[in-house]
Amino acid sequence: MKRIFISVVIVASVCLLVCGCSRHSAGAKTARDTFYIPFTRALKQRIESNHLDIKKVQFFVDQKLVLRRSMGTQKNDIKSGVILFENGQYINEVIIPRNTPGVCVGANGDRLMISFELQNNSVEFGPGGFNDGYFTLYAHNWNGGSAEMIYDNKNYKVQCATCLNVGDVKLMVRKSEAEKLQRTQRVVEGRKVD
Length: 194
Fold this sequence. Notes:
13 strands
């Protein structure tokens, strides 16, 4: 009887330990969440004041983007994306997953053209006015959380698959890269009398 009681206590303790750990870790931030920080106007100015090439910075997008365009009833040339057949129409869909790496292929003032694929198709980002200068997606014809943008020289409807408004999509950089820009320093060894 004593063995059964001890076995039950051990099993219950292990269950409590496992459940307690799983609840604690579910609410904790993962390394993936804290690995990236938003790219801001201040960070861009720091890069420029240090005469660094913005085209050598690795960028990431913080949300999943879905670009869609209707191609009518006949398939045309598709360079990238997925072709869907929906209600008698062909739909070209391009998906840019969360944390997809991208490079800057051009700049126009504060706006950056970020390419996420080799074909040099780019997405425009720039500093928003109401969000501490975070670089957010630039588009036109905003409507109910979605917008339109030019991609691959064609007009696409763009939506955020992981947020309510495509205007909330931010450009990100690795935290370590941003910290490198903040810690630029030189150690002087000193001089001795000859």
